[in-house]
Amino acid sequence: MAKTKVLHIVKSLDRGGAEILLLETLKLHNKEEFEFYYIYFLSWKNKLVKEIEEQNGTVINLSSKNNIQLLFKIFKLRKFIENNQIQIIHCHLPWTGIVGRIVGKISKVPVIYSEHNKQERYHFITKFLNKATYNWQHLAIAVSEDVKNSINENINPKSKVEVIYNGVNTDSFNRNVDSKLQFRRDLKIDDATIILGNICVFRKQKRLDKWVDLFEKVNKQYPNSIGLLVGAGILFDEIKSYIKDKNLEHKILLVGLQTNVKQYLNIIDIFVSTSEFEGLPIALLEAMSMQCAAAVTNAGGVKEVIENSVNGFMVDIDRIDLLEESVMKLVVDENLRMFMGTKARNTVVERFSIKTTTKQIEDCYNKILAI
User: 269 and 150, same structural domain?
Assistant: First the structure.
């Protein structure tokens, strides 16, 4: 039986949440039924290319420097689709969604669009073009109910919007005590030191300056604590300078972009997020799967994961000041940390497994082909 050919169109293949999801679902997809292609545009954002190719994904770069240049790749995309007999186009994030819908309409190939953020957060031009082309697709996948509601309120689409939560490989993302102790020693961190951490792209929505302020307050009350920030982005140098200005460079470790985030999650005691908005952050799900206790803001789909005071602590996005109390509860009470870490992992295992996510996506593909 011939395989179904699926083309993913994505702006970059760096280590962002949407991109990581592409890699992790590829590892579990039924390769006897589906064949996957990946076209991306920002050639310098290519950290996942090798790993996708190792999973038998075919990767093509149509180099573009900005969103306008993406539009000029439409005819190359159309030619690729025709030459390779692509049967489904699956787009991720708005500008590639816009381009994919246009190409799909021209080529008469069904389009699925995955939305990872709320419409209110996009530039007005992006929102306008997104809305103008939205009904050219066959199905939208929202990563949370919050994202789905945003689509319905701002676009009111004719095509169906289905929620498929982001997922984590819970077999892989599982705490290993021996590795934890060894890596702490490698980093010269005492076993008794409490590590507050976050893994994210350094951009404005993460409010990492607030994260640093919060850590400073916690550290004054509990000096045997260390901050750990994993990731990179346009604000990396700014946050690095901010940490230096506060004389915290010996208290907060900035380790940059890492291929293996598991070893860092494995040593984090408390995952702290100060985000202003999110779709459904994969880093949070990974941290919870690794039994990190969580103290977060209720940004976007986070409220669909965290049950306050049960599997983590959660405060309103406008009340970051209240996170200090929540974090301190976890810092001083080891039993509470362990309890919430266990509850966190159980939540992810039961509701946010990558196996479930992958199966639901494949079901969408088959439904589209049956129309």
Answer: no
